[in-house]
Amino acid sequence: MPHSSSKEHPGRNSIVQLTSSVTITTGASIFKSVETSIVTIVTIQVRRVWIRKER
Fold first, then answer.
1. Three-class HEC string of 4-46
2. Mean pLDDT, consecutive 10-residue segments, the chain of 55 residues?
């Protein structure tokens, strides 16, 4: 049974690259959704203040 370290495995590098790209994509989409929800909350708050001012 031949002993080979994980560093010598040729597919390891591509797996690491794939994982990092997936992580970046997931992080970006999470950031986008968080940003969208923050903007929505701020907009709702601003509208409530405006409605109070108009009354």
1. CCHHHCCHHHHHHHHHHHHHHHHHHHHHHHHHHHHHHHHHHHH
2. 57 90 94 96 95 83
